[in-house]
Design the sequence.
């Protein structure tokens, strides 16, 4: 991983941690933050938003919906952080199956997914996490 990308990911990590603070996780108490980086250098944050009556929306889809609704279509990576609200450390938190399939419509094969493993940032491709994806 080159130095410029590492610096960029550190910036995204602090944005994701901050976005996680806005999570509305009244049911699970599991709070997630995400940062979606576009190919033109913009970043969109998201948090999970649960609801007692209907299905929750994950941090990843929140970030995608914010970006797509602003006209963005070209994405570089998403970084995700998550943990229970009273945790002192982040879990290794990867997008759920629903989010993987959702983002598949909007990204190329080289799209990266970053997750924290302790202090270390781990890199995945969507293809690794969603082999044989459904595509129209
Ligand atoms: Zn999800």
Sequence:
């Amino acid at each position: 991983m080159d130095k410029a990308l590492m610096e960029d990911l550190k910036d995204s990590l602090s944005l994701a941690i901050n976005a996680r603070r806005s999570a509305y996780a009244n049911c699970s108490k599991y709070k997630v933050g995400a940062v979606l980086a576009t190919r033109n250098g913009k970043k969109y944050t998201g948090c999970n938003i649960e609801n007692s009556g209907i299905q929750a929306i994950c941090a990843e889809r929140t970030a995608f919906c914010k970006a797509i609704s602003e006209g963005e279509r070209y994405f570089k990576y998403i970084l995700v952080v998550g943990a229970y609200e009273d945790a002192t450390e982040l879990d290794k938190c990867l997008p759920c199956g629903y989010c993987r399939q959702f983002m598949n419509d909007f990204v190329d094969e080289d799209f990266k997914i970053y997750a924290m493993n302790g202090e270390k940032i781990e890199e995945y491709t969507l293809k690794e996490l969603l082999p044989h994806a459904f595509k129209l």
